[in-house]
Write a structure and sequence with these properties.
This protein starts with a helix and ends with a helix. It is globular and about 70 Å long. Helices cover 76% and strands 0% of the residues. It contains 16 helices and no strands. By secondary structure, it is mostly helical. The mean pLDDT is 94. The chain has two domains: 1-58 and 305-382, no CATH class; 71-300, no CATH class. One of its GO terms (cellular component) is membrane. It comes from Mucilaginibacter pineti. This is Peptidoglycan/LPS O-acetylase OafA/YrhL, contains acyltransferase and SGNH-hydrolase domains. GO terms for molecular function: acyltransferase activity, transferring groups other than amino-acyl groups; hydrolase activity.
């Protein structure tokens, strides 16, 4: 007879396809680790050594997610556009597969947060947050911080899923460009536009201060679409120039580490060079992450405990991202602090909150993936 611990383990166990690319899973697991690390570090006193160490060990996990998403979706689009005659049916099938993967989880968490926010009176109701449900809240304006603030990156991803296939359809079906030329022109066009727009906003805002970067540059659709397009550029190179992609994988990896280190140095030193921080940095980071992919994806599979942990952590990364900040950090940890840990001193409460955050996030995300996200994703094949 199974003991309770075994039953709990079986409930959380996630099966996975052994044909997954282990290298991509490593990068995806690193991305969500960086996100959780920066969110959980804030439980500690910001002046403490531990908080400073945790934050200095961090890279921009969301940008890494953008590049990986662009690389994977770019590969799907390239294979689709090269194999099939492009039609509205092709576009619909692409969107159906994407949205069965992303929207059920997003809408579920959004409605839960809507109920919690209405109950706690942080929001007045649906009318106040309706733009979140069609991903327009941060299209070209700062995202309000009173509801689901981490959804900023999901808006960027969803607009990428919507716009890029349409652009490619126009290039191939209307202007009769070949898929290869269409993809390259769309990639370069979107990268050029987003970069130009960041420069334009920077040039119109001479008195901007560092505290305004996140809302006005880092977390808007129109300023960050290029991050995903660098991933598509990688998929383009891997598909059409595979020999070059593989031949220079080590050189590119070293280049990527160097570019990420440049961005990291600026982050930890706190040096304020506006044109670099507002315009160039948002290009250097995704290029740096992109350069890691050719070498890392050569690691096709793995074995052992670490392999299984990394792969499963990667698989639940979307669910982890959706729940970790608002649902777990704000509401769940806030509830525990108020009703269970209310007599604990702040210095002892910080580590309790830290480990509670990680435990609850991973366990609930695993349940969400296994019993909600995965069944809905399977519907796209019906």
């Amino acid at each position: 007879m199974n003991n309770p611990l075994s039953k709990f383990k079986n409930i959380l166990t996630i099966d996975f396809d052994k044909n997954r690319n282990y290298g991509l899973d490593i990068l995806r697991a690193l991305a969500i680790f960086f996100v959780l690390n920066v969110h959980s570090a804030h439980f500690f006193n910001p002046n403490s050594m531990l908080s400073k160490v945790l934050l200095k060990l961090n890279l921009d996990g969301v940008t890494l997610f953008f590049v990986l998403s662009g690389f994977l979706i770019g590969g799907i689009l390239i294979r689709t556009f090269e194999k099939e005659k492009i039609s509205f049916k092709t576009l619909f099938n692409f969107w159906k597969r994407r949205w069965f993967r992303t929207l059920p989880n997003y809408l579920l968490i959004s409605f839960i947060l809507l109920l919690l926010g209405t109950h706690s009176k942080t929001i007045t109701g649906f009318e106040q947050v309706k733009s979140y449900f069609y991903f327009y809240a941060n299209f070209k304006e700062p995202l309000p911080d009173y509801f689901f603030p981490e959804s900023w990156s999901l808006s960027i991803e969803e607009w990428f899923y919507l716009l890029i296939p349409v652009f490619l359809f126009i290039m191939t079906a209307v202007y009769w460009f070949r898929p290869k030329a269409s993809i390259l022109l769309v990639v370069l066009g979107v990268i050029a536009f987003s970069t130009w727009f960041r420069y334009y906003r920077y040039s119109c805002w001479p008195d901007i201060v560092p505290e305004q970067i996140d809302a006005n540059f880092r977390k808007q659709v129109i300023t960050r679409l290029d991050s995903l397009m660098y991933g598509v550029l990688g998929a383009f190179c891997a598909a059409y120039y595979p020999e070059i992609w593989k031949r220079y994988k080590k050189t590119l990896f070293i280049t990527g580490i160097a570019l990420l280190y440049i961005g990291y140095l600026q982050y930890i030193t706190g040096q304020w060079v506006p044109i670099y921080r507002l315009v160039i940095y948002f290009s250097i980071q995704p290029i740096g992450f992109l350069c890691l992919i050719p070498l890392v994806t050569e690691l096709k599979t793995g074995e052992g405990f670490i392999y299984r942990v990394i792969t499963r952590f990667s698989i639940i990364s979307y669910a982890v991202y959706l729940i970790n900040y608002s649902l777990i950090k704000t509401y769940a940890i806030g509830f525990l602090d108020k009703w269970l840990f209310n007599n604990i001193s702040p210095e002892h409460l910080a580590p309790i909150n830290y480990f509670s955050f990680w435990f609850l996030t991973i366990v609930i995300a695993a349940l969400l993936y296994k019993y909600f996200e995965k069944p809905f994703t399977a519907l796209r094949d019906l």
